[in-house]
Amino acid sequence: MNEIKENIQTDQYLVGKVLGGEPNAFVTVIRNTERLVTQIIFKMINNTEDRKDIAQDIYLKAFKSLPGFRYQSKLSTWIAQIAYNTCLTYLERKKLVLLDQNQENNDPDEESLELANKKSVVHLFNSTENDIFQRELNEILKSEIERLSPLHRTLITLYHNEELSYEEIARITQLPEGTVKSYLLRARRSLKDKLLRKYKKEEL
Amino acid sequence: MKAKHLSENELQQYVSDPFFFDESIIHHIESCETCKVNAKVYQIMFAGIQKQSKPAFDFDLTDLVIAQLEQPKRSFSTNIVVAYLLPSTGIMAILISCFLFHEYFSGLFIRYSNLLFYLFLSITVVVFLFQCIEIYRKYKKQIGVLNIS
User: Fold this and answer.
1) Cα dist. B134→A23, A161, B138, B142 in Å?
2) Dist CA A159 CA A114 (whole Å)
3) What percent of chain B has pLDDT over 90?
4) First to last CA, chain B
5) Under an 8 A CB cutoff, do A138 and B48 touch?
6) What's the DSSP call for residue A158?
7) CA–CA separation, A84 vs A134, rounded Å?
8) What average pLDDT score do residues A11-24 get?
9) Which positions ≥6 away from A161 have C-beta within 8 Å?
């Protein structure tokens, strides 16, 4: 509760300064939110050149809309929502798919990913080769996350990497909380299956 | 204790929720090798995602954005002058007109017929209503734009 109050006070202070004509305050706003916004852009947009334009566009939109910010959420969540919407508009304009369920449902069934295969992953994790395995796992995870749909990629990152709550993610994506949970369930399952399939292939 | 294997949902909840406490599920995982291994795989995966490096731009986003921001439009002193000068001028104009034409005003309700007076009144009310509707419509539109962006 205190943390929320503190956040609102900090946000009010910063927004007040920006609206009072102090550009330095907006620098602080950018610095405070840049990490989250960058995560969203990188997860939703593949084109490196377009990412730069989108990032600028997001903050210019935020600056223009700042007088309308009503403190109904954290300032960072509000800017993340602008980031998500801007990326969404970009995907729609480029006719790119936000969520390709067919592609992710092509994964093998649970039965085909045998227990032995899973055990080998767990065993590797506990073994003395832990460091090597960790690095390898991180690389595989990175590439498998990249293969997920933009929406699944974003949800996985916001929840596990940025440690946002379901409520915050729902606010950012403007999806019902239940839908966010259900998409996350599918995304994690898909990622787990892909990960195990990858290990199975490498063993062969 | 649950006899069937745990669902993906239950497994994910068990691994990701630190306050998870469902005895039947906990007991099942302790005794079922398949579910234990499944939970462990999820655990490894979640830890792996958490350790993923954060992406960063190879340029200074702050500099780029700040360079494009418009200078604050309003200067404090101009705003104050406008805020006080306009209403005062309006009030002064009304007072001066009242003083100069007070004789005509007093005759307004006596000389002209009721029909003319009600016509004038209804036009004023209609114009005022339209103005209110327009202001409300604009307000809703702007709020809508903010909500979307």
Assistant:
1) 34, 46, 6, 12
2) 28
3) 25
4) 49
5) yes
6) I
7) 31
8) 89
9) A39, B49, B50, B52, B54
Q: What's the gap between Cα B131 and its chain centre? A: 24
Q: Which of residues 48-107 of A touch B (CB under 8 A)?
A: 51-52, 55-56, 59-61, 63, 65, 68, 82, 85
pLDDT over 80 at A140, yes or no: yes
Rounded mean pLDDT of A53-66? 95
Question: What are the tokens at B10?
Answer: 């239950």
The rounded distance, in Å, linking the Cα atoms of A58 and A87 is 9
pTM of the model as a whole: 0.70
Q: Report whether pLDDT(B19) > 80.
A: no
A26 vs B42: CB contact, 8 Å cut-off? no
Q: Which of B41, B51, B59 sits opposite A192 (nearest CB)?
A: B41
Distance from the Cα of A201 to chain B's closest Cα (Å) equals 17
State the ipTM, two decimals: 0.80
- Alpha carbon distance B38, B29 (integer Å): 9
Distance between A197 CA and the closest CA of chain B, angstroms:
13
B138 has a pLDDT exceeding 90: no
Each residue's pLDDT tens digit, A74-114: 999 999 999 999 999 999 988 887 777 665 555 555 554 56
A199 has pLDDT over 90:
no
Q: Which of A28, A48, A122 to mutate to test the interface with B (most CBs of B within 10 A)?
A: A122
DSSP string, A51-76: HHHHHHHHHHHHHHHGGG--SSS-HH
